């Protein structure tokens, strides 16, 4: 027990080991798998490989209307879609996603003219 | 193919398992595979000095399989699980949960066996 | 019953050791039949977290199954993926590069350290020693941070894939892993004195839950349960992944009680630190994965040593992209019958300690 007393005094006199969380956040590590933040919709060729490889069935690609959609609540952030995309246009962010108030999917549609358009649908 | 596998009939199962116990084998687990044509393949795995020995028994769905839990007590959990999930007919397990160890009352019987499910849709439902 | 004498009329009560209990990390139900504080019989009931994952693996493709299999358990997740990938690689005759074998060993040993530190903390919490619990878990945070930095996730790290690993470790990352492993060893050496030599801790652990060696072998005990009773059984000596080229001996104790099991797990933390440093010294350069072509066909059994014991994977494939059968036998499944042997004859206050010494991982048991 007396070995613990030395450890306890050392803990009392040094600065706390925990962070004051809402005021001081830890910067995320560089290669961490946080969330799938989006897609560079101009590069996408709508091949559908990411939809076939997803283990949680969270992606939906429709070639007819040129859209790519992800259901963020089904995604398990494994990173398989990022690896198999032939054009490498899916982006993974390193901040972990926070909870949301409504269930919405992120949908991106490519227009046949010049610029793309990202629309959120409930 | 898996190494060291022997095909035996279910009458010789008890004799072979007693023989393994006398020779110092440790019971690892048992696996059940649904072959799709009404028969099941039950494979018992034993181990001694980190080398496996496997005994394979082929049974039909209605056949009775004797339990080995009077020779190896640690087989009770695995035999209860096979009885519930596949619908095998295993007799005289030392502690028998009667079909309620893993599944609850509202679920399907024998969910892991390959079976056809017919869903009726009546008029007036969504 | 109760006809032979006046003192045979003690009443039997049944106390449920419920699915929710502050000591248990996962739900397990035991019905304890007791006579005045001594337990006469114990009947287990499991099935609270059955998810049907074996059926799900028959529906998904064999490349997607890696992600399903590693989510069976959070504490031993990377070794489930390792056993599955080794089985498929044997079926398809794929030889993985040497650097991938060493990387798999490093991540597996880090996982073993974090699992044993989690268990040591829970044991200290079970007999009420909360400050020791917090000290041990502070060391575990270092392991979780280094896993997030090198592999991308804290608990489910998803680095194993069929044909090798998905990520590589640069030389600075390897040096950082070695530094952190040394720090953990220094901290645990100081806490070892509290675990091993403290009077109250010894009073609760020595002589509690004795399991003789021949009973342990007969009931099929695996992992640290068997090694604390003197049985020399460690699957890593068969030499899968890169273990054949590393130099180690299984950790054996002969005490057969809870104190011996605590000693085994504490010494395995030191052994893992030593294995990590050996692997970092010997790791060769090269590729980290090979491409996979074709479909698996046939049946195979692959076994790996998890922190809790020996896990067995039986895979059967028939040439299409879905597997026909995947059967997993986890180590806690084999250790539960030994619990039924240790409980009769002990007192009610020792029941939480006894359940914790088998290291119950119930979500592995009923996948």
| Fraction of residues in helix of chain C | 40-55%
- Quickly give the structural class of chain C: alpha+beta
Largest interface: B-C, 29 and 34 residues
User: What is the typical, i.e. mean, pLDDT of chain A?
Assistant: 76
The outline of chain C comes out as globular
How would a textbook summarize the main sheet of chain A?
4 strands, antiparallel
Helix content of chain A: 10-25%
Strand content of chain C: 5-15%
- Kindly name the structural category of chain A: alpha+beta
Describe this structure as you would to a colleague.
A four-stranded antiparallel beta sheet of chain A has the order 2-3-5-6, with no helix packed on it. Chain A has 122 residues and is an alpha+beta fold. Chain A contains three helices and six strands; from the N terminus they run αβαββαβββ. Chain A is 18% helix and 22% strand. Chain B is of the alpha/beta class and 126 residues long. Helix content of chain B is 17%, strand content 31%. Chain B has a four-stranded mixed beta sheet with strand order 1-4-3-2, covered by helices on one side. Chain B has a two-stranded parallel ribbon with strand order 5-6. In chain B, strand 3 (39-48) and strand 4 form a beta hairpin. The mean pLDDT of chain B is 79. Chain C is an alpha+beta fold and 367 residues long. Chain C has a three-stranded antiparallel beta sheet with strand order 1-2-3, with no helix packed on it. The chains are: A alpha+beta (122), B alpha/beta (126), C alpha+beta (367).
Throw out a few tags for this protein.
heterotrimer; A: 122 residues; alpha+beta; 4-stranded antiparallel beta sheet; two-stranded antiparallel sheet; elongated; disordered C terminus; B: 126 residues; alpha/beta; 4-stranded mixed beta sheet; two-stranded parallel ribbon; 2 helices; 6 strands; 17% helix; globular
């Amino acid at each position: 027990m007396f070995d613990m007393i030395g450890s306890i005094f050392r803990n009392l006199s040094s600065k706390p080991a925990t962070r004051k969380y809402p005021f001081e956040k830890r910067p995320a590590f560089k290669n961490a798998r946080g969330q799938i933040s989006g897609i560079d919709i101009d590069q996408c060729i709508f091949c559908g490989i990411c939809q076939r490889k997803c283990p949680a069935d969270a992606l939906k690609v429709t070639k007819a209307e040129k859209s790519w959609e992800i259901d963020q609540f089904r995604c398990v952030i494994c990173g398989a879609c990022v690896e198999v995309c032939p054009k490498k246009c899916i982006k993974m962010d390193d901040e972990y996603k926070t909870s949301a108030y409504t269930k919405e999917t992120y949908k991106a549609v490519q227009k046949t003219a010049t610029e793309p358009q990202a629309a959120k649908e409930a | 193919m898996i190494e060291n596998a022997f095909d035996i009939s279910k009458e010789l199962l008890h004799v072979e398992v007693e023989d393994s116990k006398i020779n110092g084998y440790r019971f690892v687990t048992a696996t059940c595979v649904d072959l799709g044509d009404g028969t099941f393949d039950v494979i018992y795995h034993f181990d001694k000095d980190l080398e496996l020995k496997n005994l394979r028994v082929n049974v039909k769905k209605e056949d009775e399989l004797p339990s080995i839990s009077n020779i190896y007590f640690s087989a009770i959990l695995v035999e209860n699980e096979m009885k519930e999930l596949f619908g095998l007919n295993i007799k005289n397990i030392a502690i028998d949960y009667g079909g309620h160890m893993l599944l609850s009352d509202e679920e399907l019987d024998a969910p892991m066996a390959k079976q056809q499910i017919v869903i009726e849709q009546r008029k007036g439902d969504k | 019953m109760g006809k032979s004498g006046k003192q045979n009329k003690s009443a039997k009560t049944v106390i449920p050791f419920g699915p929710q209990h502050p000591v248990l990390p996962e739900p397990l139900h035991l019905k304890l039949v007791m006579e005045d504080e001594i337990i006469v019989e114990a009947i287990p009931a499991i099935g609270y977290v059955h998810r049907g994952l074996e059926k799900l693996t028959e529906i998904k493709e064999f490349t997607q199954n890696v992600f399903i299999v590693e989510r069976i358990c959070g504490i031993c997740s990377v070794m489930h993926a390792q056993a599955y990938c080794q089985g498929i690689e044997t079926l398809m005759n794929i030889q993985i590069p040497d650097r991938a074998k060493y990387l798999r060993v490093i991540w597996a040993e880090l996982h073993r350290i974090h699992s044993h530190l989690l268990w040591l903390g829970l044991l200290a919490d079970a007999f009420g020693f909360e400050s020791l619990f917090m000290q041990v878990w502070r060391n575990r945070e270092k392991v979780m941070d280094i896993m997030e930095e090198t592999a991308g996730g804290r608990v489910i790290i998803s680095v194993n894939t069929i044909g090798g690993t998905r990520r590589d470790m640069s030389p600075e990352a390897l040096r950082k892993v070695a530094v952190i492993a040394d720090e953990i060893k220094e901290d645990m050496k100081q806490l070892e004195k509290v675990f091993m030599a403290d009077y109250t801790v010894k009073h609760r652990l020595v002589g509690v839950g004795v399991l003789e060696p021949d009973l342990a072998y007969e009931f099929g005990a695996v992992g640290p349960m068997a090694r604390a009773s003197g049985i020399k059984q460690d699957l890593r000596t068969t030499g899968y992944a890169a273990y054949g080229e590393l130099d180690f001996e299984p950790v054996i104790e002969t005490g057969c009680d809870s104190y011996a099991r605590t000693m085994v797990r504490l010494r395995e933390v030191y052994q893992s630190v030593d294995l990590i440093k050996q692997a970092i010294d010997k790791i060769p350069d090269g590729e980290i994965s090979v491409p996979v072509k074709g479909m698996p066909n046939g049946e195979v059994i692959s076994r790996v040593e998890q922190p809790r014991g020996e896990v067995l994977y039986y895979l059967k494939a028939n040439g299409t992209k879905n597997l026909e059968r995947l059967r997993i036998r986890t180590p806690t499944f084999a250790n539960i019958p030994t619990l039924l042997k240790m409980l009769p004859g002990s007192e009610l206050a020792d029941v939480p300690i006894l359940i914790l010494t088998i290291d119950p991982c119930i979500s592995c048991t009923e996948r």
